[in-house]
Amino acid sequence: MMSQKLRVTVWGENVHERENPLVAKIYPDGMHNTISDGIREGGEFDVRAVTLHDPEHGLTTGILENSDVLVWWGHAAHGKVADAIVERVLARVWQGMGFIALHSSHYSKPFMRLMGTSCSITWREAGEKERLWVCNPAHPIARGIDRYFEIENVEMYGEPFAVPTPDEIVFISWFEGGEVFRSGCTWKRGNGKIFYFRPGHEAYPIYYNKNVRLVLRNAVRWAAGDGVKWIDSCPQISAKDAPELLEIKGPKIHKEGEAGFR
After folding, report:
1. Which residues, 6+ apart, have CB-to-CB distance to 66 below 8 Å?
2. Which residues pair with residue 174 across a beta bridge?
């Protein structure tokens, strides 16, 4: 019996491709579709692409419930993402859906909420070389990658990167101008795994790079949940359900069956 393919939803703004002729020439079908094609290579995953412009930003309750991993590319329209959709995404991550944030998605609403920090960086747009060093070669996300790989033209991101200390750092980038950056980091929130991967500036054909595509496929496998949902609730437990015989003492403020507080 064949196992079910991992279900991946790729979310993209599809703003630059509509408004900037340079980006439209590089990504005529949109970055979201190019990213999807890279993940789809080999036929291992069931991949759909949605955008900001779709109804409910393409992230309906049904689509999210049927997504093992959500890949997010954002840059120019972070503020246009509806807060209700963000809450929907967060709930699924806490339940166990993987979340992969790409490039400028460090400033996306879902990623910033998951991190709880400003997620600020330093940056420069000079078309310089990036060398991504594998600092955790045993990590599943680095599988098949040599000691490092290079991208000839990128936008530089530099430290400090104002995120919580990562659980793991998979890649560290060096740039031609001398800066370094923690460009591949993981965290866990609730039951969900999170991976941030830096490369992907819209003015360069980065999502056609074979190593970038390999990292994305590896990251999808790693981020996918195990199917166990973490229940985020605050139930009241009666005294008779306690593991030990319990004598009720002191004042009792709450009524039996009363909803819990948050």
Report:
1. 7
2. 131, 180
Q: Which residues contact 208 (CB under 8 A, 6 or more apart)?
A: 34, 38
Q: Is residue 238 part of a domain?
A: no
Rg of the chain, C-alpha, whole Å: 21
**Residue range of the domain that includes 76:** 6-223
Strands of 15-121 (E only): list them.
Answer: 45-51, 69-73, 98-102
More confident residue, 62 or 233: 62
Is the dihedral angle over the CA atoms 61, 216, 136, 128 positive or is it negative?
A: negative
Q: What does the block give as tokens for 26?
A: 């590089």
Helices (H) and strands (E) counted in the chain, each on its own, are 7, 9
Tens digit of each residue's pLDDT (9 = 90 or more) over 210-251: 999 999 999 999 999 776 666 666 777 888 888 998 888 878
Task: Examine residue 232 and state whether it is found in any structural domain, yes or no.
Answer: no
Q: Is the pTM of this model over 0.90?
A: yes
Amino acid (1-letter code) at residue 155:
E
CATH number for the domain including 128?
A: 3.40.50.880
Q: Long-range contacts of range 79-84, CB-CB < 8 Å, 24 or more positions apart?
A: 80/52, 81/52, 81/57, 81/108, 81/109, 81/110, 82/56, 82/57, 83/109
Q: Categorize the per-residue pLDDT at 31 as very low, low, confident or very high, splitting at 50, 70 and 90.
A: very high
When divided into structural domains, the chain yields a total of 1
